[in-house]
Amino acid sequence: MFPAIFANYVANTLTLLSLACGFVSIIFSLEEHFTFACWAIILAVVFDGFDGKVARKNPLPSEFGKELDSLSDVVSFGIAPSSLGYFFICSRFEITATLVLFIYLACSAWRLAKYNISVNGKMKNCFSGLPTTASGGVLASFILVYKRYTQLPPKPGLYLILVLILAYLMISKTKFPNFDGIKKIFSSSMVYPVFAVSISVVAIILFYFFTGVVLPEILIFMFFLQYLIFSPFLIEKFV
After folding, report:
1. Neighbouring residues of 12: CB distance < 8 A, sequence distance ≥ 6
2. How does residue 167 score in pLDDT terms, banded at 50, 70 and 90?
3. Residue 127's beta-bridge partner residues?
4. What's the CATH code, domain 2-175?
């Protein structure tokens, strides 16, 4: 019993570290240190992934940990990406950007509330709707790539369209695999791992051809992009 109880404390600590990363990202965005703000969100994704894995070590789920995790996710993957996006693309107040990013934030909160009242046993290997962790990772890694590989001013239209797509996917009934689902996909067939590696290699070659350098930003963005695009199709076939 002690290791199980201990797992809850470790998981909650990791959740608070994810929350801290979200808070730091907001501060960096306010100070216009956008690269650091993006990396803080990516680090929050890492902590959030580990806290769920550790929490599952306890056969008796912690309701407190579940609520704490959702509240942390609202900050780290709702408010922080919204703040980052707004200050990155807007030099002054913009009503359109404000509205679109609020829609994203509202959908994040909606998605987390829906998850908290869902019966997890009905969807053991997948989520209903895009996880907020993944949506926050997509937005942060997109800005990382944009800042690193172009000197052009930000394109609000392109970014806001991406934001709206992610907002819709979060509250949709589209299925996305969780960690157990991903493991099942990889154990069921080698087709996706080979395809994923091939796509990544092609992207790396193209970026190297046009820029002469390949940095971690593109690898991280490719990871989130593949999860976003291919997961719903793989769920239907393997999970």
Report:
1. 51, 62, 64, 65, 68
2. very high
3. 176
4. 1.20.120.1760
